[in-house]
Amino acid sequence: MIRSAAPKQAELRLLVPSLMFVALVVAAVASLGAPLITSVATTFHVPLGSAQWTLTIALLSGAVATPVLGRLGAGPHRRAAILVTLAVVVAGSALTVLPLPFAWLLVGRAAQGVGLGLTALMMGVARDHLPEARSAATIALISVVSIIGIGVGYPLAGLLAELGGVRAAYGFGLLVTAVAFLTAWRSMPEAPAGRTAHLDVAGAVVLAAALLLVLFLAGERNLWSRHLAVAAGLAVVAVVLLCVWVVVELRSTTPLVDVRAVRHPAVAGANLAMFVGGIGMYLLLTLITRYAQTPDGAGYGFGLTTFVAGLILVPFSLLGFVAGKLTPRVRTRIADPLLLAGSAVVVGGGFALFAAARSDLVELFAAMGVLGFGVGGFSAAMPGVILAVTPQSETSSAMSFNYVVRSVGFALGSAVGGLILAAGTGPGHLFPDDSAYTTAALVGLGAMAITTLTSLALARRRSSGTNP
């Protein structure tokens, strides 16, 4: 069925909730790996390190798919790209449910992770087919929904795993991705006429290799503690590959990502803020959920089950959504870079709260709520900073690069938390000292301070009129 580039009014009414739903589903399904790691290890009789790859491989495929889909989304076949991607996610979801060996579960999780690349395409659709004021608010909410989907996926996955096992949790993923596919098939319009997009295969391959190394190093924490020289060598290789990728993109007539546009001070500053801020945001998320599940026999912690620990993310999702709804209204009075800075300060407040008070479960809920509000505001303001200097036709491509940066930042945030806690675990002990959590929180405060300063520098540049 062929759609016109200009959707009818009835279709426009469905478009905004459809964009939100697709962004929420792909984020929630990709996050299913985190709360199910222990269950996967038990069900498939594999080590926890191997089970961890059910999350890492989804992040990797999402990070690679995001710029590829962003480039395809800038062309005339955006609707087809969305539907084919969702079909891949549905097929991957089916693989996670079927009684197949562990290797097939990883294949399915990789296919599910591809869906993370759709977030930027949802923004491109909103910018092309909605009035300017409404598209700006919708894009901000899509950015927020892509974050709070994590908070939705965690408790649901934990509950279903407790009630029906790991297959039941993945079965829920299959159900919602199938509904998302039908929703997109019904509501997604064609891209505006006159656009072209060519895929830079060489750039995609080099980027995939670099990101594989980055996420491998982020996930394999034991490698850093036991084989530091090997880990450092692989880190150097990853940096070299990223440099090669930049050269390839600069020389390509059809780059995967317009690196020259990324070098614009506003875009570069926003991506730096996203990278460092992403490390801090995911670090706190990791610290709180791990602290809550630590048995009280360790001298701290609450020994919560996966489901109950997942409920701690409810205030994260709720307050994140509230911040996302408020941000479009506030940004009429406050510039987006200042909103980024303010949101980074709020996340820093969450770190300070966690560092100072975590002896009561209510305090963990409070810290998670503060984190959610800060992350929601940060995510809602970020697109405005980048899209202010981005051509409309390049919306998907520009935002896709920002989401690659975010994915890498999240992965490194998780790794940083693991390394600090591992360093704080004494010989013969299963759990780190309580003071290790304080140390990690202080590191997170430093990351958010850098994010705040970067955002303030963007605000000063804008106010001085140096941004076009």
TrEMBL record:
<dbReference type="InterPro" id="IPR020846">
    <property type="entry name" value="MFS_dom"/>
</dbReference>
<feature type="transmembrane region" description="Helical">
    <location>
        <begin position="436"/>
        <end position="459"/>
    </location>
</feature>
<feature type="transmembrane region" description="Helical">
    <location>
        <begin position="401"/>
        <end position="424"/>
    </location>
</feature>
<feature type="transmembrane region" description="Helical">
    <location>
        <begin position="338"/>
        <end position="358"/>
    </location>
</feature>
<keyword id="KW-0813">Transport</keyword>
<feature type="domain" description="Major facilitator superfamily (MFS) profile">
    <location>
        <begin position="11"/>
        <end position="464"/>
    </location>
</feature>
<feature type="transmembrane region" description="Helical">
    <location>
        <begin position="12"/>
        <end position="38"/>
    </location>
</feature>
<feature type="transmembrane region" description="Helical">
    <location>
        <begin position="224"/>
        <end position="248"/>
    </location>
</feature>
<keyword id="KW-0472">Membrane</keyword>
<feature type="transmembrane region" description="Helical">
    <location>
        <begin position="269"/>
        <end position="288"/>
    </location>
</feature>
<dbReference type="InterPro" id="IPR011701">
    <property type="entry name" value="MFS"/>
</dbReference>
<feature type="transmembrane region" description="Helical">
    <location>
        <begin position="137"/>
        <end position="156"/>
    </location>
</feature>
<keyword id="KW-1133">Transmembrane helix</keyword>
<dbReference type="InterPro" id="IPR036259">
    <property type="entry name" value="MFS_trans_sf"/>
</dbReference>
<keyword id="KW-0812">Transmembrane</keyword>
<feature type="transmembrane region" description="Helical">
    <location>
        <begin position="300"/>
        <end position="326"/>
    </location>
</feature>
<feature type="transmembrane region" description="Helical">
    <location>
        <begin position="364"/>
        <end position="389"/>
    </location>
</feature>
<feature type="transmembrane region" description="Helical">
    <location>
        <begin position="168"/>
        <end position="185"/>
    </location>
</feature>
<protein>
    <submittedName>
        <fullName>MFS transporter</fullName>
    </submittedName>
</protein>
<feature type="transmembrane region" description="Helical">
    <location>
        <begin position="81"/>
        <end position="100"/>
    </location>
</feature>
<dbReference type="Pfam" id="PF07690">
    <property type="entry name" value="MFS_1"/>
</dbReference>
<feature type="transmembrane region" description="Helical">
    <location>
        <begin position="106"/>
        <end position="125"/>
    </location>
</feature>
<feature type="transmembrane region" description="Helical">
    <location>
        <begin position="50"/>
        <end position="69"/>
    </location>
</feature>
<feature type="transmembrane region" description="Helical">
    <location>
        <begin position="197"/>
        <end position="218"/>
    </location>
</feature>
